[in-house]
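Notebook, bench 3.
Goal today: get a predicted structure for 2-oxoglutarate (2OG) and Fe(II)-dependent oxygenase superfamily protein from Rosa chinensis so we can plan the truncation constructs. The sequence was checked against the plasmid map this morning, with no discrepancies at the termini. Length recorded as 474 residues. Pasting the sequence as submitted so the record is complete.
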Amino acid sequence: MAGSGLPSLGRVKLADLVPSEGLPSDSYKLSVSTLSQSLAQYSAAIIQFSVSDGALLRSGLDSARLYFHQRAAYPAPDIVHNNDPREWCKTSGYNADPQLWLETYDYRPGITPLEPNNMMEFPPAGLPDIFSVLGKAARDILDAISFYLNLRSSPFTEILDNVPLRNREISSSVLSVCCHARPSFQGAQHHNFATQEDGQLVMFSDHEHQVDKTLISVVRSDKPGLHIKDFQGRWVLVDEDLGPQEAIVYPGLALYQATAGFVNPALQRTEITNIQNNLFGRCSLAFKLMPKSMTSLSCSEMRAAGHGVEPQFQLPVPVDDFMQRSHPIDQLFNRQTVQSFNFHATPDGSMKPMMRRRKNDSKSKPLPPSKRLRLEAQRVLKERVQDIADKKGIKLRFCPLKDCESHIQTLDSPCANIRMEIGWPHGVPFVHPHDLPNKAKIGFLEAYEPGWSATNDMELGLTESGQASQSALG
């Protein structure tokens, strides 16, 4: 997903993202484009709900403030949050994390939460209605992203909960009612504070980089404080200018996996200012659209749509395993064409400075020639071919390698017009550069970046690198 210069977070009316039969309307296409560009540039977007739904969210936040305000100052030991990854689809009711000054109430349809003394708990009001509104919004947003990626309609239905849930089913998705830094919550022993010049107190999470393992998250808060890292590596306060009917939406790790890395997840952190003068803390409603535990995250839909699927995304991943294992940030975002969370990338997204640093780093080995060629080919595809296709309104649907070897020999073939319009290298099969033979990769790079071989800082010559690459893959 490539952004093209939105001056700020994209604002989209949810009503314009609801799909309908027949050809897409102009408002739908514009809304999908705005949403997708905003997610590419800022890893977040602003969604505008209807007047009635906006009122429901505001009343939910009012109820949340009262709910947490009446809680005890010191949480009981058995409701302190332990972050057990095995419980990812079973959390419900109240829990607390004293070190982060964070309290949450998880509403998960299919589970009746109980207090520690086995008494039924009285939750914040309106949670079933809020769950329904935000859940439908998250699904519409997911379908809009699928439309932008040229996937078939509702491609993720098989990994989502039934609507409505069947008898005895428990929802994988969850609505979390959160409260940060409630003054009457005195259980915290270690606060991570920083003092600003104006004397206000600011609190950040101890884990500065947090990533939701969701498909889609929709968040509405009563005070600004949600920071998300944009594609240039800057922290952006995304909920500073929300209207009364608006909420923030951002993608998570599960969508990153299911789209073969084409949709980057949001790195976020929470900031609370002026804690001492804040009676209720910072409350928020966060709906998390989750995949079902007994399914797998597969990139088959992306492959069917003609997108290149890198090796780490080739095999389906069981959802339960995906949710329980750790995902180091520096190993996740390795698509060098996307600047969002590549902490070693330069501001212009160029890969060459990163390669030079790797060569000069005594602790890391230089990338093998085949790896460099593959990364450079993917970069050229994103920066050159995709830009040409976008400007001409062409949807890139790559051919299988074996089929296209015969296509390039004939004038009347399925990909002939596309190859001609975007200036595809002569004699090179119309497939994703990742799938090209190494000699074809070199021809591909030279066609779109003349002189690349002379300026690229590889130790081996062009001929030697091609031979080394073939022997490495063989």
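Residues 350-473 form one domain. Confidence is low (pLDDT under 50) at residues 188-207, 334-365, 457-474.
Flagging this for group meeting.
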